[in-house]
Amino acid sequence: MRTILLAAFAACLIVAGSAAGLFAAEEKAVPTAKIGVVDMQAIAVKSAPAEAAKKQMDERFGKEKEALEKQGEALKKKAEGLKNPKASEEKKLEFIRAKQDLDQKTRNFVRKVEQDEVKLRQDMVSLVFQASYEVARAKGFNFVVDVTAGGVLYADQSMDLTEDVLAEVNRLYKEKEKGSKKDDKKGADKK
Q: I want to staple 131 with a disulfide (CB 3.0 to 4.6 A). Which of 11, 25, 72, 169 is the partner?
C-alpha cells in the first residue's frame, strides 16, 4: 500500500511539474497587452489643426454662406407677401424661380464645402493616427482604441492617452506648418 501511495505521489509530482512547464510556455507565448484609449472627438475639437481647419473653412466659405442666408431671409419675406390673395401670378412665378435658384446655389455650396471638409478630415485622421502611434510607442502601449467609436464602456484613467495624443497632434501640425512655410519661402526665392 505504501508503494502505491508513493507511486501515486510521484505521478502527481510529475504531472504537476509538466503542467507548470506548460503554463510557463503559455505565459511566454502570449504577451501582456497594454491598451490605451483616445477620445478622437476631443482631439477633433481641441487640436490646433482642427481650429486651423475651422478658420480656413470660415475664411473660404463664410461670405458665401452669409450671402446665401441673406437670400433665404429675403425669400421668406417675399413668401409672406405672397400670402395675400391679391398677389399676382407673376409675383408667385418670380418667387418660385428665385427659390429654385437659391436651392441650386445652396446645393452647389454644400458640395464645395463637403469636398473641402473631406480633404481636411483625411489630413486630420492621418495626423491623429501618426500621433497615436508615436505616443503609444513611446509609452509602451501595444493597442490603442478610440473611446468615441462606441466599443469602450469603461477605461481606467491611466489608460487615457487623449491629452498626450492631442499634444503630439499639435506638435506634428506645427512641424508640418513650418515645413510648408519653408517650402513656400524657397518657391518665392526661386522666382
A: 169
C-alpha cell at 111: 458640395
Instruction: Locate the DSSP E strands across 84-156.
Output: 143-146
Instruction: Write the pLDDT tens digit of every residue in 20-46.
Output: 454 554 555 666 778 888 888 888 889
Q: How many residues does the chain have?
A: 191
Give domain limits for the chain. 1-30, 33-190
How far is C-alpha 20 from the chain's CA centre? 46
Quote the pTM value.
0.63
Confidence of residue 138 (pLDDT cuts 50, 70, 90): very high
Q: Which stretches of the chain are assigned E, i.e. beta strand? A: 35-38, 143-146
Give the sign of the dihedral formed by CA 108, CA 110, CA 111, CA 115: positive
User: Rounded to whole angstroms, how far apart are CA atoms 8 and 19?
Assistant: 16
Closest CA to 127 of 44, 60, 184: 44
Superfamily for domain range 33-190? Skp domain (3.30.910.20)
Q: How many angstroms separate the CA atoms of 17 and 10, rounded?
A: 10
Amino acid at 110: V
pLDDT tens digits along 143-154:
888 888 777 767
In the structure grid, which three cell numbers stand for residue 155, read together?
477605461
